[in-house]
Amino acid sequence: MRLKHALATCTTVVLAALLVPAAASPAAAAPPTTYASVRATDWSYAGSVSIGWRIRPYSLDPVTISIQDTATDGYAIGARLVTNGDNGHIVWRMRTIPSGQDTATWTTYATPGGYINNAYIEVCKIKVSTGVIASCESSSVMSAPFDDSSV
């Protein structure tokens, strides 16, 4: 009976030794994150972004964009991610606040393929009646918060 108990205990210890490192692996860890914000010079709108930077594959995940419309002026507010890297200058799709709403938040990701040199958001004022962009303000440019030169 002692042999069965010793064997069961040994098996439990070995399984725990194998499973605990798997649960705490780097793949499960949160990526390094950068933050930026932007506000219109007339204070009519604002936006912010947080970006998680991943190396394998190069991607931005998660990307959380928040915007706020603080004026009732006949303009909608939209935001879009902009990236620069191996695949050039990419302006991602515009996300807009629906009419009558004053804030919105989206969580998404970006995998443009290849190395991502930097990223930022543009927050834009859009004329509701025509859909034409009237103006845009850009956040500060964010680069990867790690040195990947040896990858």
List keywords for this structure.
48% strand; mainly beta; elongated; 10 strands; disordered N terminus; 1 helix; 15% helix; 151 residues; single chain
Helices and strands in order, then pairings?
Elements: H1 2-23, E1 33-39, E2 45-54, E3 59-69, E4 75-85, E5 88-91, E6 95-96, E7 103-110, E8 116-127, E9 133-138, E10 142-143
Antiparallel strand pairs: 1-2, 2-3, 3-7, 4-5, 4-6, 4-8, 8-9, 8-10
Summary, kept brief:
Helix content is 15%, strand content 48%. With 151 residues, the chain is mainly beta. The longest helix is centred in the first third of the chain and has 22 residues, at 2-23.
Q: Major sheet, described briefly?
A: 6 strands, antiparallel
The fraction of residues assigned to DSSP E strands is over 45%
Please tally the β strands and state the result. 10
Radius of gyration: 23 Å
- How far apart are the termini? 53 Å
Overall, the morphology is elongated
**Which parts are unreliable, with pLDDT below 50 for 5 consecutive residues or more?**
1-25
Structural class: mainly beta
Q: How are helices and strands ordered from N to C?
A: HEEEEEEEEEE
Share of helical residues = 10-25%
Q: How confident is the prediction overall: mean pLDDT?
A: 84
Number of helices: 1
